[in-house]
Amino acid sequence: MRASVLRLLLLIPAMLVMAAPTTAASRPAAAARAGSRAVATSACNTPADRQFDFWLGDWRVIDAHSGRLVGFDRVRGRLRGCVIQQSLTMLTDLYRKPALGYRMAGMSISRFDGQAWLQMWADDQWGAIVMRGGPRAGDAMALTSIVPSRGRDVRLVWRKYPDGTLHILQYVAPAGSGKWTQYGDLIYLHNR
Questions:
Q1: Would you give the distance in Å from CA 146 to the centre of its chain?
Q2: 2-19+44-190: CATH architecture
Q3: Please, which residues bridge with residue 136 across strands?
Q4: H-helix or E-strand containing 145?
Q5: pLDDT at residue number 20
Q6: Which residues contact 130 (CB under 8 A, 6 or more apart)?
Q7: Helix or strand holding residue 83 (H, E)
Q8: I need a labelling partner for 123 at 20 to 30 A (CA). Which of 8, 68, 75, 152 fits?
């Protein structure tokens, strides 16, 4: 498990470079390199690698309890579809840390490591969490923190619905207790 986490952490710098916009000057060189070798299929083309594709897109994030728009989330496939990169911007104080004068923003990277999904979340207020998990019954994905964060375990459950909406249920438990309490329910609507 530690080796998988280390691989994920080592991917971060490469993902940030790959996520950078290309310039007109860089395109001809990239095209020449691509033309000089045979086209290979992605190393990430198994059904397991595609389990999180339902999350890809531009989303409006609604707090299920208040019905208010609380943020925008952009979720993209990167590195030939092997990595999922999330960029969340909150519009309200829903997850703002007390005494900070700005609203939370954060990002994550997720990848299937051949056995399970790994995700590293980092934001500008609360810190970072590394999670691991996979599919659950009922069209859901669940990831649980590998190492406690601030003395607690975190679990996120993505549930997709036939109309294209998602719910992301958020749970917390005292570290190692397994006594989960729901603290958030976010509804994701396609941002059209």
A1: 15
A2: Beta Barrel (2.40)
A3: 140
A4: strand 140-145
A5: 44
A6: 5, 8, 118, 119, 120, 121, 145, 146, 147
A7: strand 83-90
A8: 68
Question: What are the pLDDT digits (tens) for 80-124?
Answer: 889 999 999 999 887 777 788 888 899 999 999 999 999 999 988
CA distance 159 to 182: 14
Q: Would you put residue 64 in left (φ > 0), alpha (ψ -120 to 50) or beta?
A: alpha
Gyration radius of the chain's alpha carbons? 18
DSSP helix/strand/coil, 6: helix
CA atoms within 13 A on the CB side of 191: 14
pLDDT tens, position by position, 16-49: 434 444 333 433 444 344 444 545 566 888 899 9
What is the pLDDT confidence band of residue 126, given thresholds at 50, 70 and 90? confident
As a whole number, the mean pLDDT across the chain is: 81
Cα–Cα distance, 146 to 111 (Å, whole number): 15
Half-sphere exposure of 118 (CA within 13 A, CB side): 23
